[in-house]
Design brief:
Layout (H helix, E strand, L loop, with lengths): L16 H7 L16 E3 L6 E7 L1 E2 L20 E2 L2 E9 L4 E4 L9 H11 L7 H4 L4 E10 L10 E6 H14 L13 E12 L2 E13 L24 H9 L34
Parallel strand pairs: 1-8
Antiparallel strand pairs: 2-7, 2-9, 3-4, 5-6, 5-7, 7-8, 9-10
């Protein structure tokens, strides 16, 4: 658990959540996460309805993807409610899931290789190109409410941008009064309805509706002592490690030189969430 300093980490989410949502682009397996012993994990079920309190956590890095210095969003030491990252799936002979190093502003050999394929004339829709596109996901700390499967304690929730955050952004855009939902004192409980979707033989949950309701009572700031730092949970391999895994299954003559500032770009058509081995966005 992240240790809290004596100085206050309180932030007001009004004006910040909607501003961040407006600039977002469309961007479970837990092998890519470092989950400390005893840390609970929440997983959405297809066709279910849940009530969740999304909790803020203290940002502990200087390169948070949502960082906005002008409005003091997701800066080191502030409270924020999600940790975006990008994930490559089915990489190498063992079909590993790898957190893209671009999630922390570093170069990624997979993204560089994909950029080279496009530069050499490959089509965006080619399977070889699409397979290398990382999907955008988010980590949250949630407290399930009135759920028989989960205790009312902090859980880590890992879900794709497309299957939850995009819908949340739409709701915030419709009514910005809801943007205080992660606040300890003024926060709201999210009642989420998940539809049951399928991809091949796999079924997965997609957010179909979100309602906001006043919490029964505010949270005391002391609960932050029990909230993990989401920044510390990502297992992000080095450039060399990703290179070894990825190019281990590719002809050496296809190797490419590292390029500067290669980042994931927006996909035209999002793909659904995987429940086993297919990609999402």
């Amino acid at each position: 658990m992240a240790k809290k300093s004596k100085k206050t980490t309180k932030r007001k989410f009004k004006g910040s959540v909607s501003r961040n949502a407006a600039k977002q682009v469309r961007g479970a397996q837990f092998g890519h996460l470092k989950l400390p012993k005893g840390l609970n994990v929440f997983k959405e079920d297809p066709g279910s309805r849940v009530s969740l309190d999304i909790m803020p956590y203290e940002v502990t890095v200087n390169n948070h993807p949502d960082r906005d210095d002008e409005y003091e969003i997701a800066v080191n030491g502030s409270l924020w409610y999600k940790r975006p990252y990008w994930l490559h799936r089915n990489i190498g002979p063992d079909n590993k899931s790898i957190v893209c190093p671009s999630s922390i502003g570093q170069k990624c050999p997979i993204c560089e290789y994909r950029a080279q394929l496009l530069k050499d004339g490959a089509d965006w829709s080619d399977d070889s190109v699409k397979a290398l596109k990382p999907s955008m996901r988010n980590l949250y700390v949630v407290i399930p409410k009135g759920n028989k499967k989960y205790d009312e304690v902090p859980h880590v929730w890992d879900i794709s941008q497309f299957l939850f955050q995009d819908k949340l952004n739409e709701e915030i855009g419709e009514n910005e009064e809801y943007e205080v939902f992660p606040d300890l004192e003024e926060g709201l409980t999210l009642r989420i309805r998940f539809s049951e979707e399928s991809f091949g033989s796999n079924k997965f949950a997609e957010t179909s509706r979100i309602d906001f309701k006043k919490r029964d009572e505010p949270y005391d700031e002391s609960i932050l002592e029990d909230i993990p730092s989401l920044d510390d949970l990502l297992e992000i391999p080095s450039y060399k490690a990703v290179e070894a895994i990825f190019f281990g299954g590719i002809d050496s003559e296809d190797d490419v030189e590292p390029e500067d500032d290669v980042e994931p770009e927006e996909e035209e058509e999002p793909e659904e969430e995987e429940t086993s081995d297919y990609d999402d966005d």
